Amino acid sequence: MRLLRTPTLSLALFAAVAAAQSDKPGPMQSGAHAQPAANQPSKSDAASQGAAPGGDFDVPKLFATSCGWCHLSGGRVAGKGPQLMGTTKTDAEIVARIVNGKTGQMPAFGSTFSGEQLQAIVAYIRGLKAS
Amino acid sequence: MKRWCKLSALSLATALLPWSVSIAADIDGKRLQSADKEPDNWMTYHGTYQSWHYSPLDQINASNVSGLREAWSHVASRSVRGLQSYPLVADGVLYYSGAYNQIWALDGATGEVLWHYKHKLNDDLVAKQTHSPYNRGIALGYGNVYMGTLDGKLAAVDMKTGKMVWETKLVDSEKLTVGFTGAPLLVKDKVVIGAQGGEWPSRGPIFGVDAKTGKQLWRFFTVAGEENNGDARNTWLNDSWKTGGGGGWMAGGYDPEKNTVWWGTANPAPLYDWSGPDFKTKGARPGDNLYTTSVVLLDPDTGKLKGFHQELPHDAWDFDSATGEFVMLERDGKKYTVHPSKSGFVWVYDRDGKVQNVWKLVKNVNFVKDIKPNGELVGRRDMTEGKHTNLCPFIAGGMSWNMGSYNPKTGLLYKVGNEWCMDLEIKKTTPILEPAAQLNIGADFNITHPQGDKAHGHVSGRDPITGKMKWEVKFPEPPLASLLSTGGNLLFVPDARGWLHAYDASTGKELWSHNNGQGHNGGIISYRAKGKQYIAVMTGWGGLAGDDYATFFGGTFAQMPKDSGVLKVFALP
How close does chain B come to A10, measured CA to CA in Å? Predict the structure, then answer.
C-alpha cells in the first residue's frame, strides 16, 4: 500500500508548495523558563515518517497517525474535517491548506512536509476510493 | 476614558453600597476550603473542593422557574469553537475566559465590562494546534486570575486591573505543539495545572506553581514518573515511555483533610495499539503504561505521588481518566471520591484511592465485557492491526469532559451519557517529532450508530455510590455541556441544539426551557449579586466532540456557527 511517487504533477504544484511554505515561521520560539521535551528520542530513534526527506513516505500511515483525527476513514468520510475523496479543490489549493491550515478548522503543518511529500499527499487524495 | 469613568462610578458605588460590586477579600486556599459557606460565589472550577457543581441558592426554584428570563449577556470576541470555559464569581464580579486566552471581568449584576485581558500568543504556534484555541477555565487566588495558555504558560492576571502580574513558561509548546487548555486549581498557596497530551508523543506533566510568585515548584510526569517520584518506566517496554502521551488536561480535585490532590490522567499514545491480547510484551507501547488513564493522588506541596489507581491498564481505546470531576461526598459515615471517566464507567474510591465500586453509566460499552466492582477489567477487547467494527463507545467517550452535578438534597449524581460507537482500522504508526510533535492516533476511524439503535445522549439522576438510576431524560444528540443542580430542587441541562432546560431535580420533570440560539459546550453556574440569584451559562459550538455533529447528526448542526460565543445570564424578573 505504499504510494508511488507522482512525477507527473505539474511544475505549478512545486510553485504552489514554495509559495505556501515561504511565509512560515523560522526558528521556534522558546521562553525563559521552557522545559525541554524531556528524554525524547532522537530524530533517528523516532523514524518519523513525516519528516524524512528521501525516505519512504507512507501517506495511508500518515492519515492513521495524524490526519485521521478529522478526516475519517482515511479521508473517505467527512468528520471534523471535510471528506477528501472527490474533492474539487486544485492541487495547489490542497497544498496551501495543508501548509497554512485554516483558523479553527485545520492546523497549519508549515514545514513539516517536503514538497515531494506534499505531492504524495495530493496523489493519495486523488486516488481515494470508497472502501 | 469611558472605562475609567465606569470604574470610578463603580468604586463610588462600592463605598456606598455594601451589596454592590466590592473589593474582594483575598481568595486563598483557606477561603476555598470553606467555599460551601459562600453560596453567593463560585470561586473555583468545580464550585467547591467537594466538586459538586451545586449551588445551594434557592431563590430560583422548582415553583417559580417558569418565570426565568434572560437578564443580560456578553458576547465574547474571537470565539472559535465556542465558549468552553466556566464562569467564576467572587464578591459580585464574574470572571470568565474564552478562546485565544482572553479573560473578561464583568459586573455580576449588570454585565458591565470591568476589564478585558488578551494574552499575547504566538499566532504561528496556535495555527499549528489541533486541540485549540479554546480555554476551559480559570482559577482565582491571591488577587490573581490564573490561566494556562495555548503556548504552554501559566499566567497570573490582576483581578482588579486585568493586567498581567507574571507568566511562567512550563511546557515547550513550540516543540510539543500542545500547551494548556484546562483550568488550574488553587490548592493552599500553589496553583496546580495539567498539560495537554494524550495523542501527542510527550510525557504530559502536571505542575505545581507558587501562587504568588509564579515559580515552578514541582512537576509530575504522568508518563512513567521519575526516578525519585513514582518511577514506572518498566511499564513501558522498548523505551516507549519517551513518547507515551499522557497529560492531565482537565482540572482535578483536592481533599483538604488528607492534603491530597486528585488528578485524572490522559490516555497513552498511540491511542490505538496493534498489540492484541499480548499487550504486556508486544505492540507500540508494551506494558501497563503507568500513569496514563489513571487517577493519581499527589502531595500538593511537593508533587510526590502518594497513591494511584490505573482505571484502564494499557488503555487501547482512548478512554482516558482526565475527564470527570472528583466528587467528594459522605455516605453513612464513610467518605468517598466518585470519578466518572470517558470509558462510560464511574469509579468510586475511598479517600486513599482504594476502589470501592465501579458502575456503568452508558448502555453501549463493548471495549470490555464489564469492570468488576473491585476495578478488575473483564473481557478486554484488545485489537490487532486491521479492521474492527462496532467498538463502543465512540472515541469521544461514553462521557465527555463536561461536568456532572451532585445534589446533597436529592442525594443524586446527575451526569450526561453518550450512546455512540465507531468502526476503525488499526495501523502501525511511528511518532512524528520533527519539526514539531504531531498527533499519534494509530488508526483510521469513523463514528457509527450503535447496532440496533440510533446514536443519542441522556441525562440521568443516580445514586453516586451504586449507580442505581432514579430518572433519565433522553436527547437526540449527546449534550456536551456541564450540568448544574441547585438548592431550589432544579437541574439545569444546556443541550447541544441550544436549549437550556430546567428539570425538577427529584423527578426529572421538565419545568422550563429557553433557546439560546446555538449549542452549549461549556460550564454553567449559579451565583448571587446585589441580593439576586443568577444562572450563567456558556454558549457557542464546536470542539473536539461537537465538530463531528454537522456531518453525523446534520440538522441544525449543519448551519450552527463554530466561531461564536455568548455568555448568557438568567434571573427572575
Answer: 27
